[in-house]
């Protein structure tokens, strides 16, 4: 039986990675204000995502989760949101082709503002200041004032999240997401000389779309060709914000995080007895749990029973992030634990956070090759364990940034300084993201073919 829970119980648990607000009155006023605002997402939507993730856990759908490492107030614009949304739809179409199952699309958007940091302070030229913790908490500028946690930033984050969701809802249903249009953008990518190797798959998708048209499936008759379900997610790190947006679902009478459809617990905040697990266990939303090299089978067992006591399919997504070359060492023992417990989980691969390096030119970057290699290792291990590689989780943007190296439109160490815009970790750009989708799609096709062969 799940233990009794209230949305404030996390306050009695040890907390890490959260700011100490100096002005308690200002913090209280912001919390009271947010608690009066409408939720950003609705319980029925979170339920629908959970049932789609249940399909992912059974291998009947595939999860694509992606977006900024940290959303930024300064970079916020309609174009930024549109471009990330657009490239995610392109990726989803390419992945659907390989997997032959629907792709569940979840943005790291409309709430991905708070960041865990590896060190509490940062030193530059002999000056030591508190670390930047994301735009919802403090500012990136390297001055003492900028680094003071300011509770009113939560209101700005809420406003930006609401505006982002408003736009995403319009893009999802307003014809912008039409499959034919999405595919036309992808064909543009494969015209590049080096991307020509992806043209065959793109042409096959064209043929499938032409066939549907000939068979009478048109935009008018098939509503699903014109609109998509698009969900939003973020790391539930700043618990004052999460608590203030927690609501009671009028249908079930149970608590729901109103801050996003899916929330996840980071690799640095997953202490089984800590504040973050305590908050997440009580809300009905789908929950993600980052699993890194230090995740032990014992911890995972406790976390699974706390976060999903009823073993509900779609409730818990394990986001593996071990780093290329390390998956074989860590993933099998966690898969073993999941099997022993008979736990229903979605397994997804975050090939970003274990592959961050410093470039020869001094930038924090991630090589495309390492990202791809980790995904391939993840697929290979699931194939040998007979378990389901349910999805991928990328830090990416629809913009043409130069933050990760490699890809067919190669970004070199020297190029990194050109358009390095991230407020936190390096993101795949639009072309690198789409290229990865083609490569993951190939993995998914071979997996499917092997399964079909085995089934005779
Ligand atoms: C993140 O997803 O941005 C992140 C900080 O990841 P992790 O908790 O896995 O390090
Ligand atoms: Co990150």
UniProtKB/TrEMBL annotation:
UniProt-recorded Gene Ontology molecular function terms: 3-deoxy-7-phosphoheptulonate synthase activity
Cofactor: Mn(2+); Co(2+); Cd(2+)
Stored Gene3D superfamilies: Aldolase class I
Cell membrane listed as a keyword: no
Keywords: Cadmium, Cobalt, Manganese, Transferase
Tagged with keyword Transferase: yes
Residues at which phosphoenolpyruvate binds: 108, 290, 321
Single Gene Ontology BP annotation: aromatic amino acid family biosynthetic process
Pfam families registered for this protein in UniProt: DAHP_synth_2
Residue runs in coiled coils: none
Name of this chain's protein: Phospho-2-dehydro-3-deoxyheptonate aldolase
Lineage of origin: Bacteria, Pseudomonadati, Pseudomonadota, Alphaproteobacteria, Rhodobacterales
